[in-house]
């Protein structure tokens, strides 16, 4: 074979790869995924440093209480969302962006106030160690944080629905200011950590509303036609998403009550480190839902997303598994105790990613009832097994519950997908 032929072959292959790369970046699936990945990377990366600094500045018990407060805020936000984060994306092209966005923001904000007040009134009944936010001033700040987080979340989903994931990235950039606030608020103890989160949610929400108002006229009117059209889809996804998100968000206050403040901190840090692995799979799944809602070819995008997830997931799992101990030690020697839990969470990532891939597929196909069934099984298994194993094995008991739940869920998902032809 001639030397000139080999040179020409290499040149042709290089040109093809370069052109293929640029074509991929023009693809809406990959372009939106890129900004979603960058947004999540930024959020998780800043979150990593946030908890790293918090672990150095604050006592482990204070970190444990703060994680329970933050998880409670997020859980209330999901309860108040009523599934509009899914309907925003699925119906924005069908019902018009102004009616969809204004209706979603208005209803979820009012719901956040109602659910937040109810939570504060019932808090002492369900969880111990809740005296901190029963103080009037702290309770009011907690409620304000709930409302700001709700608006922040729904405007972020609005940016995704508008295929404007660049602004979603910028929204998370503003949220990064929470790291700086840890230093001046250290005198408040656990509420200093929570306060840093609350203040930056306020700043990021103000920014998000200003940017969104330039794209859409915000009049906060409720479109009853959109509500009627999307009710079944919204309510189904609301139940499904609540079943999916609530076990992990309930875990810090549950651990706080069952086995202590330090264990709640260990759980939260282990989950924060393991979440680094899930950034790309979650972003690609979200982008798959967006593109499918705009009528793009589902099977083609599923294959593209699956390949991309596999390419990113394998090296991420290997890295975190091998160097997780060093990462945890950065937070402090006390947090190395979470390494066995981190290993189990990391090894479970394949099963978690497979389940998460089916969520957008079923939403695009409007098979919400099947999604509710799957997440109900996940909810019951994860909470039930966690409650049993936490008492017997301590913090690593959650890891056992997490892995067993997602292995069983994978078996169920593969069986149902073959039976009902979901793909």
Automatic annotation (TrEMBL):
It comes from the Archaea. One of its GO terms (cellular component) is plasma membrane. It holds the Pfam family Polysacc_synt. The chain crosses the membrane at residues 34-53, 65-88, 100-126, 138-156, 264-290, 310-332, 338-359, 371-389, 395-416. Keywords: Cell membrane, Membrane, Transmembrane, Transmembrane helix. This is Membrane protein. It is a multi-pass membrane protein. It is found in: Cell membrane. Its main location: membrane. InterPro entries: Poly_Biosynth_Transport, Polysacc_synth.
């Amino acid at each position: 074979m001639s030397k000139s032929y080999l040179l020409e072959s290499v040149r042709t292959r290089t040109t093809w790869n370069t052109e293929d790369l640029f074509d991929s970046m023009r693809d809406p699936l990959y372009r939106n995924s890129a900004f979603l990945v960058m947004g999540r990377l930024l959020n998780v990366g800043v979150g990593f440093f946030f908890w790293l600094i918090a672990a150095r500045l604050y006592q482990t018990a204070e970190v444990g209480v703060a994680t329970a407060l933050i998880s409670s805020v997020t859980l209330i936000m999901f309860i108040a969302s009523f599934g509009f984060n899914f309907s925003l994306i699925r119906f924005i092209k069908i019902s018009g962006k102004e009616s969809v966005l204004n209706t979603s923001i208005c209803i979820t904000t009012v719901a956040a106030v109602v659910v937040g007040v109810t939570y504060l009134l019932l808090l002492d009944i369900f969880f111990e160690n809740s005296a901190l936010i029963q103080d009037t001033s702290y309770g009011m700040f907690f409620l304000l944080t709930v409302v700001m987080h709700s608006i922040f979340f729904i405007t972020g989903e609005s940016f995704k629905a508008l295929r404007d994931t660049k602004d979603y990235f910028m929204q998370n950039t503003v949220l990064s200011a929470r790291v700086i606030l840890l230093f001046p608020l250290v005198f408040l103890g656990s509420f200093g950590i929570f306060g840093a989160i609350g203040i930056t949610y306020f700043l990021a929400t103000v920014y998000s509303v200003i940017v969104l108002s330039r794209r859409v006229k915000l009049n906060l009117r409720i479109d009853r036609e959109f509500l009627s059209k999307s009710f079944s889809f919204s309510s189904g996804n609301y139940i499904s998403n609540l079943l999916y998100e609530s076990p992990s968000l309930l875990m810090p206050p549950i651990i706080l009550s069952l086995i202590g403040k330090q264990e709640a901190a260990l759980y939260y840090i282990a989950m924060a480190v393991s979440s680094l692995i899930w950034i790309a799979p979650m972003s690609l799944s979200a982008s798959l839902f967006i593109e499918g809602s705009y009528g793009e070819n589902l099977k083609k995008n599923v294959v593209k997303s699956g390949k991309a997830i596999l390419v990113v997931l394998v090296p991420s799992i290997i890295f975190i598994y091998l160097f997780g101990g060093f990462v945890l030690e950065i937070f402090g020697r006390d947090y190395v105790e979470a390494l066995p839990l981190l290993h189990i969470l990391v090894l479970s990532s394949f099963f978690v990613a497979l389940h998460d891939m089916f969520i957008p597929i079923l939403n695009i196909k409007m098979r919400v009832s099947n999604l509710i069934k799957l997440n109900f099984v996940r909810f019951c298994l994860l909470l039930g097994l966690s409650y049993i194993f936490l008492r017997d094995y301590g913090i690593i008991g959650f890891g056992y519950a997490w892995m067993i739940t997602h292995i069983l869920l994978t078996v169920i998902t593969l069986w149902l997908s073959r039976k009902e032809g979901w793909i």
